[in-house]
Amino acid sequence: MNLALFFDPLPETLTAATPAPTTLAAYATRFTETFPDWRAADLALIGLDEWRGSSTGHPSRHGANEVRHRFYNLQKGSGAVRLVDLGNLRPGLTLEDTYQRLREIVAALIEENTVPILLGGSHDLDYGQFLAYETQNRAISFAMVDSRPDMAEPGPGTAPEDSHLRRMLVHEPNFVFSLAHLAHQQYLTPPEVLVALEKMHFETMSVGEVRADRRLSEPLIRQADFMSVDIAAIRWQDAPGYYPAYPFGLGNEEATQLCWYAGHNEQLSSFGLYGYRTDQDVNGLAAATLATMLWYFVEGFYHRRPETGFGTFRFLTYTVVLPGNPDKLVFYKSRRAEKWWMEVERLGDNSVKRVVPCTYEDYLNASQGDLPQRWIRLQALLS
């Protein structure tokens, strides 16, 4: 597939200066005259400037380029970096065309084990990211970080950015196994939306829950095949780059931690940062925040350590005996990290089994005779 047909090269203002040898700019292969060899890369950055899905119109400047300016001046982290920048995606004739372009591009990159990083545009563009997984021929899990679940009824007067999550969940064929929605703000979220997600056995964490103990979000992200982040999940004081402004949300420390978790997840094969509007970012603070989030994702990626071989010497195995049905639960803990997993079998059919990420608290609850809520949700999804 000739991906170069879909992209414009980076502007000269981003690539003219000779980069300092210790910065990311010196290690990234960027599209200027020659299209990079994306098949040989670990990560591929894609700039987006598509806003037809937003109700607030097109911002004055290209957001991905603003973030790139900050990102490439950051110091390279530990280890080798094989990062290509494919430039900026040319929008399709219609918004639906753009979604389909993203579908094809993301699917092609995943097939070559290159992780696409989608940067910019309105949050509904993650629908194109989502469509790429239809080619996987399996059920997938994903995580979304946003100030509210975008579950509005599509129709006249509803912007696609307000209904893209609903569109994913009702897509046919349905290939969604699980969803984790993180950092919603309850005063922005209709109660019936949370009820609907609960009935579908999906997990949610409010912004207060994430901020109280961000470690509890790690197993939810570790289960995801892809993740999308809306900058609106971050409080305005830390990232003044979205509209309308909200004074509450994730702090920049929580936001970067979630990006680290995403990068560190060896199962995750695409990542998106959406919603940044340059016309709101007077002093460049939001661009700097997103650049740092992107840095943590890349750094997390290069700290990946595949966790395989449950039941082998790599893991400690804990079997908890229970009084009912099931009569036992099996947990695994990595010997080299504070990571836990739980074995879930479909009741009455042990041929359907999954080993899923969980928390130490899930193990403690089981040890006290209580079935973890995570087990109950997974049991429902397997039924």
From TrEMBL:
Family under the similarity heading: Belongs to the arginase family.
PROSITE patterns in the record: ARGINASE_2
Phylogenetic lineage: Bacteria, Pseudomonadati, Bacteroidota, Cytophagia, Cytophagales
InterPro entries recorded: Ureohydrolase (IPR006035), Ureohydrolase_dom_sf (IPR023696)
An example molecular function term from Gene Ontology annotations: hydrolase activity, acting on carbon-nitrogen (but not peptide) bonds, in linear amidines
Source organism of this protein record: Hymenobacter properus
Name of this chain's protein: Formimidoylglutamase
